[in-house]
Amino acid sequence: MGQSLDDLLRAAAADPRVIGFAGGLPCPALFPRRPLTAAFLRALQARDVPALQYAWPEGFASLRQQIAARLARRGAAVDPDEIIVTSGAQQAITIAAQLVLRRGGAIGVDPETYPSALDAFRTLHLVPTTSAQTHVLYRMPAVSNPAGATMGEAERRATLERARFVIEDDAYGDLRFAGEPQPPLLASSRARVLYVGTFSKTLGPGLRVGFLIVPPRLHTRALRRKTDDDLQTNSLSQAIVQEYLATNDFDAFVRKLRGHYRRRAERLMTALRRDLPGWSFTPPSGGFGVWVAADRRVDEAAFLRRSVAAGVSFDPGSRFLAEPGARDRPTSFRLCFSAVPEASIEEGVRRLARAWTAAGRARSARRNGRR
Predict the structure, then answer these.
(1) 125 and 154 in contact (C-beta within 8 Å)?
(2) How far apart are CA 187 and CA 166, in angstroms?
(3) How far, in Å, CA of 138 to CA of 273, rounded?
(4) CA 222 to CA 92: how far, in whole Å?
(5) 18, 98, 292, 342 — which has fewest CB within 10 A?
């Protein structure tokens, strides 16, 4: 029995010889390790050591105040008491979906979207769909995944007009390459937007610190679900993030990240235009990857195996598709530049191009053999 896509990707991630365009990981070299280490030490030296103690389900008060202050600077006025600190964005997405949909309900998503959100919805026995008839939507307006697109003003208005509720995933909101971060949809509608934020793409996913803001009438139910899920988000992680935000210029750090990721994106796109000119893509406005469409349809798993053997990996496009019928379109991939050393990006694309050429030759040979 052949390896599954998950098995192939896990094996590739563990092989240092493979240049990994898969995974959507932040660059480890950009983690603010020294400031986080200092924050960790301060957290452990605090009186009564709250970092090692139980906390309330909604999260540390000072951390929620810092989150509220950041949102206010983006135009969203939120009381800190309305914020629930979660175990990453994934828990926030799951709680939000449970609040506004019942088992068997449909949730409107983009044709390609965040795979783990799709997995969560399906686990909850919800039906992700691209149908225009749905009234609960999951969207990433600031920077989408996988395309890295920013929603235009007309689409933002149409989304809010159409939807009864919008689950707004703002995971990449701080990582737009140019201009200031957009005001979240939350700023336009507190009554209908369930807002999901996270520090995973900036400070580090291992901290597992996200947050959720729901319409006021849903807050008590959201907090109850959070309590039932895990009682509270990790106290030590909350304390580290809280101390970091209190003693560092997070906005300056984010600007640095945006510059680094923009350069990586440009380097990847230049290499793709040179070595795989038949592939198409729209330059992302931010985020960690480039969503590419190949110039022909291939067996996705077979091409991934061939690519890994050639020393390069990518995220198969099927993982991002909301509906199976979308598989009829040209083969697509997400190529993540975020965690690849800049000096390795061109070589990674060259390996991908060689694997693509070899796949084309194998395909032609099979056709000729059938004749």
Answers:
(1) no
(2) 13
(3) 32
(4) 9
(5) 342
What pLDDT does residue 1 have?
A: 44
- My answer on whether 207 and 85 are in the same domain is yes
Structural domain for 83, as ranges? 33-247
Q: What pLDDT is recorded for position 162?
A: 92
* 296: amino acid identity, one letter: R
pTM recorded for the entire structure:
0.95
Please provide the DSSP assignment of 81-102 as one string: GGEEEESHHHHHHHHHHHHH--
Q: Among positive and negative, which fits the CA dihedral 123, 100, 196, 210?
A: negative
- The residues, any chain, with a CB within 8 Å of residue 348's CB and separated by 6 or more, are 19, 21, 271, 312, 340
Q: Name, in order, each residue with C-beta under 8 angstroms of 74's C-beta and a sequence gap of 6 or more.
A: 173, 181, 182, 183, 184, 187
How much of the chain exceeds pLDDT 70, in percent? 96
Average pLDDT over the chain, rounded to an integer: 95
Cα–Cα separations (whole angstroms), residue 198 to 12, 91, 241, 347: 27, 11, 11, 32
Q: pLDDT grade, residue 147 (50/70/90)?
A: very high
Under 8 Å between Cβ of 210 and 86: yes
Written as one string, the DSSP assignment of 326-365 is: GGGSPPEEEEE-TTS-GGGHHHHHHHHHHHHHHHHHHHHH
Tell whether 127 and 21 lie within a shared domain.
no
Token representation of residue 286:
């931010």
Q: Flag whether 371 is in a domain.
A: no
pLDDT tens readout for residues 95-138: 999 999 999 999 999 999 999 999 999 999 999 999 989 999 99
Residue 296 has pLDDT above 60, yes or no: yes
- Number of structural domains (the chain) is 2
Do the Cβ atoms of 243 and 316 come closer than 8 Å? no
Dump pLDDT digits (tens) for 34-50.
999 999 999 999 999 99
Backbone angles phi, psi at 212, to 5 degrees: -135, 135
**Residue with the two structure tokens 């008839």:** 133
Contact 240, 71 (CB under 8 A): no
Output the domain CATH number for residue 55. 3.40.640.10
